[in-house]
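Aim 2 progress update. The chain analyzed this quarter is reproduced below.
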Amino acid sequence: MLDVVYPLIRPLLFSLDAEQAHATTLRALAAAPRLAGRVAALTMGPPPSELARDAFGVRLAGPVGLAAGLDKDAIALPFWPSLGFGFVEVGTVTAHPQPGNPRPRLFRLPRDRALINRMGFNNHGSAALASLLRSLRARDRWPEVPVGVNVGKSKVTPLAEAHSDYATSVRRLQGLADYFAVNVSSPNTPGLRELQERAHLERVLDAVMEAAAGTPVLLKLAPDLEEDALREAVSLAAEVGVKGIIAANTTLCRDRLARDPEQAGGLSGAPLWPLARQCITTVLQEAAGRLSVVGVGGIENPAQVRELLEAGCAAVQVYTGLIFRGPGLPAQVNRDLSRDPRPPSPVRHD
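Predicted structure tokens:
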């Protein structure tokens, strides 16, 4: 039903400031997640059981996940599986609560089916998130799909202390999340992408792995990394016991836009797809069966998902495609994959 109604309400949402529309939608879903879920399930619903798969040490209900950034503080967490998501990633969350960058900081590019954001990890902090997740479990409102938490560095924390900042959040959330995703690739926190360099990255990953205490850890990388640096990061992740790579985050590149709005921040959506696809290819080559790879970046139709699964990705994630194609995208992908089971069974990297 929501996928049928969305084309009618999208003009209204697009008439609002992008961040205001985002917040309004999340508040509506958070107010009545079960009712919204029942409505969504009329035409969408959970992925078919035959699409379940094992990846990065977790049993996914389906191959399409919700990417981090859409529901940073998990306020609508119980709702998302009703759209057909096989797993959900909340965050990015930081050790310290922070307001993020000054507004406006989220911009639509309708002609390009793209977004530019410079949110700056606005969130209530990992302690608040841990409290909410405990409450959802206690009230029997936990979704029946895996939930990952994307963790970033607090803006006030110096790079030299980043490892401790990440570990603090992971310790608070250990036992509540099904996996952790280490975000060292957002372009919107000053200096953060320097953490993708080997010396910094090894220290961060070692601290997170210890704090995770056996919960699977994934690493999210930027599509703007040079190939050698990308390969080195993937190789290091495998060495220290990371279970998977999420490729890729938003880009600073503007080459494929119809018109550059000259707004700072990370670009997502359709123009990111060619760059993300290239990044995913490199990551798959370097991972070479040692790590699960989750493909993300510009995905907006079933053909792209099929292409990534056939290339060797264990799963995919979407975000901006939901904004421009509508909430029916995950269910559309699930129906396509169920009708034609050509994608090979995912290789386990556990």
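Residues 198-212 form the longest helix (15 residues). Residues 345-350 have pLDDT under 50 and may be disordered. These observations will guide the mutagenesis experiments scheduled for the next reporting period.
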